[in-house]
């Protein structure tokens, strides 16, 4: 759902997005939703004792990344002149997309811990299913964002920043307190 929310924001910010860009964005999110659980699975099988200490920092890392990205969007939305759309008109950079992909999937590392008993093939299949579902859900998010982006263009940057900050807080609260 984190990746869906960010995809929705990307669609809001880029209502004229081309299909190739849509595939790039949802592909990045799907890749990281595949990759992170696999990293968790590999860590359990190779570095379990060293990685266990790192796991408690995952909510803090996700919070920091999403606060940074969402805060920048929020500030850009607030600073933008009234006649401009409050969402950046130029598409977000590839590096920023990668950062968003990491930020929205870092909590998926823990999925790798839960599938630790799976064989390599079973873990790959599980992660491929996660990636496929993420791809579909994120594509729906971008399309919904594009559809409503023209109606909400004046507030999309602010809305997007608030959504990303909210996602970061949700990951942090559930990761630290539950």
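^ structure tokens above, recovered residues below v
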């Amino acid at each position: 759902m984190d990746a869906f929310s960010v995809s929705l924001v990307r669609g809001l910010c880029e209502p004229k997005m081309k299909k190739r860009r849509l595939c790039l964005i949802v592909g990045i999110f799907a890749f990281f939703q595949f990759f992170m659980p696999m990293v968790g699975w590999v860590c359990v099988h190779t570095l379990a004792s060293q990685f266990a200490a790192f796991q408690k920092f995952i909510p803090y890392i996700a919070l920091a990344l999403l606060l940074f990205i969402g805060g920048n969007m929020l500030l850009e939305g607030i600073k933008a002149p009234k006649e401009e759309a409050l969402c950046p008109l130029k598409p977000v950079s590839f590096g920023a997309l990668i950062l968003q992909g990491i930020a929205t999937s870092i909590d998926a590392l823990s999925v790798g811990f839960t599938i630790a008993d799976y064989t390599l093939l079973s873990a790959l299949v599980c992660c491929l299913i996660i990636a496929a579902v993420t791809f579909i859900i994120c594509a729906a998010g971008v399309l919904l964002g594009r559809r409503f982006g023209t109606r909400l263009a004046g507030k999309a940057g602010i809305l997007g920043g608030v959504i990303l900050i909210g996602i970061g807080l949700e990951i942090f609260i559930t990761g630290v307190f539950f």
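The radius of gyration is 17 Å.
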